[in-house]
Each structure stands twice: as C-alpha cells, then as structure tokens.
Amino acid sequence: MPVLVVAEHDNAALKPATLPAVAAAAEIAAKVGSEVHILVAGKDCRGVAEAAARVAGVAKVLLADDAALDHGLAENLAPLVVGLTSSGHSGVFSYSHVLAPATTSGKNLMPRVAALLDVMQISDISAVVSPDTFVRPIYAGNALATVQSKDPIKIITVRGTAFAPAAADGGSAPIETITAPGSAGLSEFVRAELSKSERPELTSARVIISGGRGMQSGDNFHLLEAVADKLGAAVGASRAAVDAGFVPNDYQVGQTGKIVAPELYIAVGISGAIQHLAGMKDSKVIVAINKDDEAPIFQIADYGIVGDLFKIVPELDEELAKK
Amino acid sequence: MKALVAVKRVIDYNVKIRVKADHTGVETANVKMSMNPFDEIAVEEALRLREAGIVEEVILVSAGIQQCQETIRTGLAMGADRGVLVLTDVELQPLAVAKLLKAVIDKEGAEIVIIGKQAIDDDCNQTGQMLAALLGWPQATFASKITISGTAAEVTREVDGGLETLAFKLPIIVTTDLRLNEPRYASLPNIMKAKKKPIVPMTPEELGVDVTPRLITLKVEEPAKRQGGIKVASVAELVDKLKNEARVI
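^ Those are the sequences you sent over. The predicted structure of the assembly is below.
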C-alpha cells in the first residue's frame, strides 16, 4: 500500500514544510517497499500540483480542486482524506500511512482524520524506527518517546526540522484529478491577517535572528532586521518578547511557538528559558548575545558574547557590511 | 447554554522533568502536579462567557486517577459550577479521552466545548479535533479570540503565517492558544466554596467507552545534551569564527 502525504500550500505555491514530510514518507515507503503519493487539495491550485509532481521521490499527485477546499478548512478537508484512505470495506485501507507536516494546518486537520478513522494519531514524529514505530518528543522535547502504533492505518504529523527535506526538483509524477465531497457546511472562512515579509519563513530559514525581552521594545527589532537582511535571515522572538507585545505571536520560537533548526541561530537578549530552548536547541550553530553572563542560553550556545546588545548588534551589522 | 471544559492533570510547567532510570516514562512520584496551562485558559474563557451572559453553566470534566479531582477543584475554585470525573487507572490517550468527552456531552448536553490546544506532557495536540470529528461539530483550534452572538461564533486562530478568522454555527469545539486570555487566580473564599461544589464520578464502562491504548510506549529517553561552546571577546572575532570555523555565513 502506498504512503500519502497531505501537501501544505496556499493555492499558489507548495510550502517548503511539505518536503520534510515527503522525506519521512519516503523513508517509510522504502521500509515497506511501497511508494509516496501527495494530495494537493485547494482551489485553483493546479500550479501547486505541478510543483508537487516535481518533488523527488513522489510517484503520484492527487489533485482535488474545489471551492470548499479553498482555505483548508478541516471540516471539509478531513472527509476528503478519509474517503481516499478507506477502501469502502470496514477496516481495509488503501494507504498504509498518511502524513502531514506538523504545522498549524497539519495539526488542525490530521487528528480529525484520525478520529474519523477510529485510530490514534502519532504526533510530531522526529524519526522513523520501523513502519509502525516512531520517535516523538514529549515534554517540550525534554524527553523522547519511542511509540508503536497498533492501528491498521497510521496517521502521522512530521516535525519538519527532524527530516532533511526531499528535493523540490527531479521528479515527474503524473497528476490525477479527484473529486471532493464538497462543503460540510460547518465552517466558513472570514479573513486572514498574515504577516507580510520579504524575509524567509521561520521554519524554513537557513539563518534566524531572534530577540527576547532584552530588546525592550518592538521598535528596537529594526536592529535585528538590519542584520537579518544582510544574512538573508528570518526574524524570530522569544515568548517573553511576544507576551510583552514587542512582536506578533507568529514570530514566536519555542515550545508553544515554532520549532526551528536553522544552520545559524542568533539569540539576542534571550535568557534561554526551557520553553524557548525547546524550539531552537537543534539548530546547527547557536550564537548568544546577552548582558548577563550567567544566562542559561550560554550553556547551549556555540559562541557567546557578553555585553550590551544595543552596542553589539549595530557592531555586528557594521562588521557584516564590511565584507 | 452550557459550556463544557476538559481539564488535564499534568506535571507543573515549572518542574524540570526527569526520565525514569528504567526508560519506561517520566518520573511523576512526588512531583508537583497542576492543571495543564492551556486548560486554565479554557476555564477562564468559559467563565468570561458566563459572566457575559452567553453561557449559564460551566461544567468541568477530567479523566484519569482519583487525584484528577484536585484539578477539577482548581477549576471550581476559579468559578466553574460543577465537575465530572471519569475514573480509570488505564493510561488515557487522546482518542480515548475524546470518546469519553463525547459520551459525557451526550449525557450532559453542551453547546460550546473549550479545551486546551495541547497538554504540556504528551504534547499531542489532538483531543479537541478528535472530539469535533466524533461529534460531527466544527473545530476552532488555536483560538486567540472568540465572539459569540446567538448561535453564530466567530473565532480568530493563531496560524503559522499570522491570524485567521473563521465563522461557525454552534455547537462548536474551541481549543485555546496562549493569547486568548490571562487566567484568574482563585480567591480564598472561592477556594472554600469550591469544596462544596459537586463532582460526579463516572467510569468508562458506565459511559460505554473502550479506553484501551492504541499506542504502546516502548521506551522514553533523554535527548542528547548540547555541549556549551566558547565566549568570544569581540564582534570581529564572532564574525571570523562564523565564517572560518563554523562556516555558516
């Protein structure tokens, strides 16, 4: 039986978060000697399906194009996924596994799918041990549980930072159009207020510079933005900075925000609460800038500078401009 | 209308957890337990809806061992009206909890159910969505603002790129995100009053729910510890190290 991945997209582009989920699916498919399919469900999203068809390792793209699927409402999307996985005979499934990235949309959708199929979801996996056994972080990543699923179909969300993304190019999978069950009539999209930024998204950025309570105000984040622009970095924040109202919640890196693992993470004025470390401790290289040399962030930082961030960050900006 | 809030007893968020030496789980003996912080937000929101005259009664439900009664008492001391405790020694997973909650809702009736978006122990983030699926209700997950007028609800959700607002018809499941509200502290008179509020015990058998776990935990381990690095004296040295040693810029 093939393995299905639910693609994350905005009807215009395939989101990079999909690629680690494809990689996890490919790992499972290799173990069971099967193949990976991608579901692209949305409205006017053929371009996304074409992008999904180019992803390396994908054998087939399923395209469901319907007005009811426009905003990825779980109430409309879940019956589509359930219909795809059930063969019509009770307890017999046409997919062995269904995976989605552990983003807010994946987390919203997949438990609804799992409950409709009467199975437990395996949330936020960080490794595939065998087709029915997975590793997942618990207690904000302070422990790792290895769990085995007894269910006949595995519904899984994938921690993006734990799997090297599948290559976005190299494949040429066929696209099959499927029909959607339409609207469940339970929910309606009203509006979205999305943060507009020219910078990369936090969860896929190669470099991230984050500010904490030490930034003192939202205005001071322009200091980080200047550095971010020189490094092609995304700008993040600690929960303390979000709670203080400096920046919106979608900047938040941590247990209750986004989980990131960039090549370089620069923590500015962040003390290093467990909550924050849970979201960034898997970064390849961590830099900490803090005036308190006892701050816990220094215990996990590869490079630390003790001092006034309002002096150090502009200096860093100048130093980067030099070369 | 009635609001039902599910509350979970978890290791207090300030406690640094320890993995058991035999790798079967996390040490919970002699560890401070509290209400899951996201559930506190759920209780607070239900109380605000009652104070706004939208909800008449706030019912708290918890499932697990006898000590979960303390978690319900905490919510009753915040101001909730009464509790239901589903007693079982079985390790409960989100699908089982969702089935228990559905059975309680079938009995008690409720037009709005508010649940924390995830518990800070297993970090599953499933129960609310699963309950919505089982009931055939809409789900407003990761809520940062709830507006109810008549039988219509508008909920603003915290999504990856920012905020999203959706419209629903009641009945509805809401799961709470951090910025929905700031939970109140229980006053001493309310803590005293809470001791007299009723908590009805039930069992999964009485509710006709099979709570057998679907996931088997094979082992629990500590993650690899990250080694601390060095402190550098100047920005120039930092940039040099990032370029020539770490090679990340």
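The CA atoms of residues 26 and 163 of chain B lie 35 Å apart. The mean pLDDT of chain B is 96.

Shout if you want it in another format.
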